[in-house]
Amino acid sequence: MAFSDNAKAVIALTTRLGDGSRPSLSPTRWHQFSTALADAGLRLAEVFAPDFDPALPGVPDDLANFVHELLRTAPAATVAAADLENKGIWTLTLADVDYPTVLSDRLGKLAPPVIFGVGPTPTLMRRGIAIVGSRNVSEEGAKVAADFARAAVEAGHTVVSGGGRGVDQFALNAAFSSGGRVVAMIADSLQARIRSPDILRALDSGNTTLVSQEAPEAPLRPESAKARNKLIYAMSEVTVVIASGVDSGESWSGAAEALRARNGVVAVWLGPGEGPGNARLVELGAVAMRSPDDLLGYLDANTSIPEQLSLPHA
Fold this sequence. Notes:
Elements: H1 5-14, H2 27-39, H3 61-72, H4 74-86, E1 90-93, H5 101-107, E2 114-118, E3 128-132, H6 139-154, E4 159-162, H7 167-177, E5 182-185, H8 190-193, H9 197-204, E6 208-212, H10 222-234, E7 236-241, H11 250-261, E8 265-269, H12 278-283, E9 287-289, H13 292-301
Helix pairs in contact: 1-4, 6-7, 6-13, 10-11
């Protein structure tokens, strides 16, 4: 697709496309700058005007200087985005009508200004059911993850998860095998993922979408996985944690943060294959699930997301 000038402005200022060492604005700094633009009555595209001065009211000097430097290398970023399109990787910005509002509505100023992906985008406009958990899940936990995924598909829901091994993979495989819609939020290299024959076959089905907020060539970083977890919870009506550690690990930190931020409904499996942190998450406000039928009953009984108990701030 052809990028609008507004979209090019978002890409230029918030991605590292064109140069992996290139800095970029974080979601919160982008929100601060774009809000100042709007307050000044300026469109995003006006950052490319020859006389544009980023020192707007409400923009501190360090941010204005940073924006000025980023605009010097803007062409490389927008050209790189166009190259990605030619490789089948789409780019969506907050300036695009196709950007999933489920992310911006739930995350607000923490929503990623740009996301990348492959596969159909309409799937992203409605929240699904996320199924997540530990990489080193037991055989019993793996079966439970698959059972929840199949139940979600049978009820007409998209299954959302991360792209890691363990619970994520068992859930996504079961949903795909059942003919369901699948959204995998990944934290590692999108370009590397789509070279996999299995991923290519899944994409060919038309039911699979891969999404990342990282530049498609970027390797996995610890902070990428943490940011990805926020997206999984934001994309979901209910996120079911199959197995979690306690006070440590990606599954625990993702669920605990979602409870703290009230980022959707967190549900936790209690039964064979559960993790040592599952019961503790229930104590902190997560909804207990003892069978896939509990999930379906919960969805039927709750037409809107209720407020959950939130974790106390440390």
